[in-house]
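INFO batch 0412 | record 1 of 1 | parsing
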Amino acid sequence: MEAKTKYWRAWNQIIPEKGERDFWINIQEGLKENFKLYKYFSDAELLYTFQTMIRERNYRSVDLALVKRFIHEFAGVSKAPQGILLVDDILDAIQKSDRGRALKIVIEKTKPKKKTRKRKNSRATVTPVKLLTMLDSLTWVEEHTKLWYDHLDWVVKGMWESLFDVRDYSKNMRGIRAFEKSRKRKNKIQRAVLKRWRDENRFVNNLHKKYSNDFTQKVKNNYGELKNLTLHQKVVSMYASRGGFMDLADTGVGKTWTALSTTSLSDAKKTLIVCPASLVHSGQWERAIKDTFRDAVVYTQKDALQEDFRFQRGKRCFYLLSYQTASNLSGKNILSKIRKSIDFVVIDEGQRLKIRDEKMPSRCRVRLENMLVKIRKNRKINVLMLTATPVPNTVGEARSLLEMLSGKNFREVSNYNSIDNLVAMHVRLKEYSMRYEKVYPVRLREKTVECPVNLKLGNHKSMLKDVGFLGTDQIALVEAKMPKILKQIKKTPKNQKIILYTKYVTGMINVLADELKRKGISYTYYTGTRKEGLDPKQGALFFNGSRVLLASSAVAEGLDKIQDHCSNIWLVGHPWTYTERQQLIGRVYRTGQKKTVNVITFMAKINGYPYDQNVKIDRINTKKSYHDTIVDGVYPEKLVGRDESWKDIVDAIVSGEKVRSSRVVNAGLMRRLSTQHRIVKKRKRKSRKLK
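INFO prediction complete | emitting tokens
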């Protein structure tokens, strides 16, 4: 107790005399009274709270950098109940000031030792009753209306998310009822949370009986067995039936059934489903719809192009539209044709609507957004977006998706990837989304295989600069990775199937196929043009009876049942986004997988230069940092600026060239690169003439 008193006195001493004194006192009191609660708030939510207080109270002299540093350190230390270590973090943040340095020396002798313990997953320990009892006093939040409702939403949704992994649901309900009947006087926010929770819980419990009689007990899993909806599916269906909502659950937890349940709750008669083309052609959505609603009618884009197309009255009608069709002129005509009839929209794999270029947004997203705007002018329409990774690259892309979903404009969030924008985007996203991170019983084992090689590149400097990434990826595959890939296949048991993924198809798939054929290893394909390897009609003959599946980005979205046949996924040519990487792994690491999933990443090192690490992996990690902050509220580890240019990358490779062997780049490959080089030169000459 003596140390605790000294530290809170120390806090009072470092508070400035003017301007922001009240601000820091409020923070101190709030943390002292609600320390246990704030352990379960994300770092982004805590930072957002402080910044909102600064804005609303007009604290002009508060150093925002100090506040951000405080939050960052708050996340990284062992969270003692009294908040003693928080004072240390403040002292560290202001150590440049004379007062901070002197004070730090004074109290250093009484400083308790930090215990280095692994940070526990809050979801594993928190319960709805714990969250309720932690809400002892939030008077500093009650003064601000916006903060009040934000905290209310965070706690209620936190209560639901804490129950997703809990098997004994009835035990938690008994705890909540006991808390309601307790004689302890409840404060304002506790009463508000209980009221909201009681109403929503009643809705979820009645879902089977009242709202979805034609749905319950009709849903089939991958193995044809009837099943009930999970708690996650019920809760998301409840929120999505009230307006625009986003399901951020991991791959393989049943987002398809969530969408169908929501259409039933909303009593939707005509539903538009926008999804990847592979799901339209494979019939996955169509089978799920007909298994659930026996009398439902499913239309495709071919049906809508007919002049006499009309939805059938009195029946549930579903319309399947691919992203590719929505992006072309026929898609524009289809959307304008069915706009007046649609009353519910499902967007599957919503990250496909990402912005490719800041100046030129995705045509598909723009057309869908325009259609939704026109519908919302005259009547209410619910939109449900399904995606496990809503942040493909930047905060601007997440913002565009959320604006289309909600029908609102979030002008306070700019497209710049700053900490403030990432935090603000996290808070906005939580208003319209629910997240379920499923823990699977099988293990996910990730491994990196380095592939060093020395090459003579001096004669091809100018050519490589013009050809671009594809050229160097080909060199890295042929000269560095292929020997390691073949060696790894030899180590893998023959009864195990393998997915070899590459981002680029041109010049890469053929190289892989030729080498596998030469070694007598059976293979098949799943790319944008060739899909014989994963035909659902083949059933047990997945992979077409072959051992290796050569796959491109087409395999990353929408496909199911791969987990029944394969547990190895090897990244030969890396994706450019964290989103695609997670989607790819999620095809194998999902519900139904019974073996340990092995993810191997092959990393080329050309003439001592870590090509894959510097060019792609670092960028994936940066985008992962953006994603974790926006989706989970984690304080970003680092923020990077503009990507390194291609010329800089090639120059770095060539400048670090120390050839120890006489190995020369494959002659056939160099001929193909030379052809690409000539094409690039022609394009440049044409563009100059046009100018």
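INFO post-check: Residues 76-89, 93-124, 640-649, 656-663 have pLDDT under 50 and may be disordered.
INFO record closed
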